[in-house]
Amino acid sequence: MVNRNSSAFSQHLLQQSPLLEEEGVRQTWNRLLNGECGIYNIRFRDKKFEELPCQIAAVVPEGPRELGRWDSSEWLMNDEKRKMALFAQYAMTASEEALEDAGWKPTAAGQLEATGVCLGSGIGNFAEIYDASVLYSRKGYKKVSPLFVPKLLINLGAGHVSMKYGFMGPNHSATTACTTGAHSIGDAARFIAFGDADVMLAGGAESCIHPLAIGGFARARSLATAYNGRPMVASRPFDADRNGFVVGEGAGMMVLEELEHAKARGARIYAELKGYGCSGDAYHMTAPREKGEGALLAMRKALKNARLEPSTVDYVNAHATSTVIGDAAENAAIKTLLLGPGGKQRAADVNVSSTKGAIGHLLGGAGAVEALFTVLAIHNNVMPPTINLDRLDEGFDCNYAANQAQERRIDVALTNSFGFGGTNSSLCFSKHGL
């Protein structure tokens, strides 16, 4: 519970969970538990993909809503689509689902003023930036759209959401690479804890599946390049044969609400956000420290903020993107945190999984989507699997729910997000009333 008269921090969460069982996060969650994968070969999208060493991505499936797919025309008016970048369109859809499930669509002035939006993206409107640059180079100034700058700005995602629903509370956008989604949720909770809002709609979105973007990550040697013919096994966190991440797209949004406010209106409460920790590696542009000191510091801060001991952590939703260095560093950090005095006695009792094997790495949207999965893990007492984990690498001796979901009591969970530039964040969730 949020106590605005003390330094204690504890924020309640209303999890995005669409009312229709086969839509949105519910469908994704069910597919995740079934070990399915959303990664495909994308050469057909653009001939330039054929030149790249990585030709795969986790894409939002296009099609009718009734089949669990996404069609912008079912969610947005033509004028809205014209003004919005694709990442903002994804975020708008996720926001609608989250607000519908939370039962929160206020009309009173006081409620609108006390409701805010915290929505970020890592890269944002990449395809249109590229297209506009090429068009400008070829045909000059008069071919630049008057909507170019508004669609370029990442904070316009939050802006469009606030304008649609009339939310006049904090309007905030984080853009911290792959930590963006987690930072958005943690920052939103602090807006509530400091009395700036009663309700916050928070999350992250990404849509940068473009030859130049993927080419850039490939040149940085970050991507999986050995599985173009077998895309569904390409993302393999913790596996000895992992060789890079797979870019994904999509959005995740959740409604955060102050406890007494939620109770007063009879809201459905899925879990509690107990703690939020941030840190910096101060080390390298793209690589973490070998032993994951930055990740460890973020997790320790989240538990300190939550006033919980390492022994209480039942599950860690790892950032683990399927890179050789990153997975090893995070694994080392998790073991340092959770093993020994005040923690678990055996590595096999440390429960860790990465959902990126199934959905790829959504960059700025990753932390938000994985926060949703973490809340569902607590709410349903199910640890989602790490798919494509066939052969454990040396030093990986925790329980990773390899290829199969595990039913287990989950009262407290951490979810980690780390990004280029050495930015780290960890969120601590618990069951309501713990």
Our count of domains comes out at: 2
- Structural class, judged by helices and strands? alpha/beta
At the first level of CATH, what is the class of the largest domain?
A: Alpha Beta
Total strands = 14
For the largest beta sheet, what order do the strands appear in spatially?
A: 5-4-6-7-1-8-14-13-9-10
Keywords:
single chain, 434 residues, alpha/beta, Peroxisomal Thiolase, Chain A, domain 1, ten-stranded mixed beta sheet, two-stranded antiparallel sheet, disordered N terminus
Structure overview:
This protein is α/β, with parallel strands linked by helices and 434 residues long. The chain folds into two domains: 11-264, Thiolase/Chalcone synthase (Peroxisomal Thiolase, Chain A, domain 1, 3-Layer(aba) Sandwich), CATH 3.40.47; 277-430, Thiolase/Chalcone synthase (Peroxisomal Thiolase, Chain A, domain 1). The chain is built from 14 helices and 14 strands. The strands form three sheets. A ten-stranded mixed beta sheet has the order 5-4-6-7-1-8-14-13-9-10, with helices on both faces. It has a two-stranded antiparallel ribbon with strand order 2-3. The model is unreliable at 1-21 (pLDDT under 50).
Summarize the structure.
This protein has 434 residues and is an alpha/beta fold. The protein is 33% helix and 16% strand.
What is the element layout, followed by pairings?
Blueprint: E1 11-14, H1 24-33, E2 39-41, E3 56-58, H2 78-83, H3 86-102, H4 109-113, E4 115-120, H5 126-139, H6 148-152, H7 156-165, E5 171-172, H8 180-193, E6 199-206, H9 211-219, E7 250-257, H10 259-264, E8 271-280, H11 293-306, E9 315-317, H12 324-338, E10 352-353, H13 356-359, H14 366-380, E11 382-383, E12 406-407, E13 412-419, E14 423-430
Parallel strand pairs: 4-5, 4-6, 9-10, 9-13
Antiparallel strand pairs: 1-7, 1-8, 2-3, 6-7, 8-14, 11-12, 13-14
Helix pairs in contact: 3-7, 8-14, 11-12
